[in-house]
Amino acid sequence: MCGDNAVSKGHSMFARYAFPPNELGYCGPPGVPEAAGLVLHAREFDGAWPYLRAIAEARATDNPLDAEVVASYWLGGPLLDKVDPAMLLARLRIAFTGQFTGLLDGLAASPGVLAHHSFHVLVVYPWVRFLGHDPATPLRVLQNCRIRWGTVGSVVGEHALITCQPLTFNAGTLALDVPVNEWVRWSKDGSSLAPAPVPGDTVSAHWNWICGTLNRAETEALTTATQTTLDLVNSARHR
Question: Can you give the pTM of this predicted structure?
Answer without folding.
Answer: 0.91
